[in-house]
Amino acid sequence: MNPELLLRLGSFLAVLVVMGVAETLLPRRPLSSGKARRWFANLSVSFLSAGLARLAAPLVPAALAAYCAANHIGLLNLVPTPPAIAWLVSLAALDLLIYGQHVAFHHYRPLWRVHRMHHADLDIDASTGVRFHPIEIVLSLFLKLAAVFLLGPPPAR
What we know:
By secondary structure, the protein is mostly helical. The protein is built from 7 helices and no strands. It is globular, with a radius of gyration of 18 Å.
């Protein structure tokens, strides 16, 4: 298995487990439905979405960044930029893009119809943070790939 994928999946699962344990030991309020059933449903949707994203666009953003660097594609690969500055610009630009995407999903009705699945959870906990419609995940991946192609962020090494 790809080391980047293992690191990403391991980090995701570690944070999810820590948050799940914390909210079980220190709940802010009683749940209206069973935690096990909700977590199973929310994580199933998350893994389905991730699987569909991998099928729709098998090229992950990190691989595209490496390709862009090797082929001098993207703004940061065309303009001489110190690596630390390129990394900071990339982090800020990609984070701002995802924020803008989230705002757009709230403000445009067709996008909201897809995004509202994330907000339809009656009990909000760590599993709610990974509950996104598969269409939203695929659209988000294509947006990130386009941004990586245009920006040319430095690949992780």
